[in-house]
Amino acid sequence: MVKELTGGYKIKYQSNGLDKDPIEIDFTPPFRRIDMVEELNKIAGLNINPEDLSSAEANQYLKDVCKKFDIKCSRPETTTRLLDKLEGHFLEVTLPNAYTELNDPVVQRQRFADQLKDRQSGDDEAMALDEAFCRALEYGLSPTGGWGLGVDRLCMLLTDSQNIKEVLLFPAMKPQDEPSAKATLGA
């Protein structure tokens, strides 16, 4: 799509405002793929064991790492929230593109169960167990890719727009000072 619209795979985007130099985003396939925990370990010099993320020791280790790098995580300091903060600090700045969706029903059910514990600990952002979704995965969801970017944000990238209102096909909010349709029609 990018090549069709722009004539190439690389675009420039004024992500930091019109007065700053644009960044270049390269959509040339194949896309770089990383494992989040492996990449965190490599970039930050950590020793996170991906097989032991649900233990109290893993949670404490992540708390200590966040403290070491002065990364703030509001309560509750669940493993999921701590990993998210670490990912945002170390990895997000290096990843302008996409991610892979988890489609293993056993692993997904366990992650939902872990998030349910987080939810019971006070994490309002943690997901509840979605048994229907897990059952659908069991029937066989083919490998899928995720795109953490809505169509509106993609349009912003491809048109180098600074404000989402520039690309929306409908007004985000009706102006308060316009006369009502009833008054305009003489009713």
TrEMBL record:
It comes from the Eukaryota. Transmembrane segments: none annotated. GO terms for cellular component: cytosol. Pfam families: tRNA-synt_2 (PF00152). Coiled coil: none annotated. SUPFAM superfamilies: Class II aaRS and biotin synthetases. The keyword Cytoplasm does not apply. Gene3D superfamilies: Bira Bifunctional Protein, Domain 2 (3.30.930.10). Keywords: ATP-binding, Ligase, Nucleotide-binding. Residues 1-175 form the Aminoacyl-transfer RNA synthetases class-II family profile domain. GO terms for molecular function: ATP binding; lysine-tRNA ligase activity; tRNA binding. The keyword Ligase applies. PANTHER family: LYSINE--TRNA LIGASE, LYSYL-TRNA SYNTHETASE. This is Lysine--tRNA ligase-like. It comes from Pyrus ussuriensis x Pyrus communis.
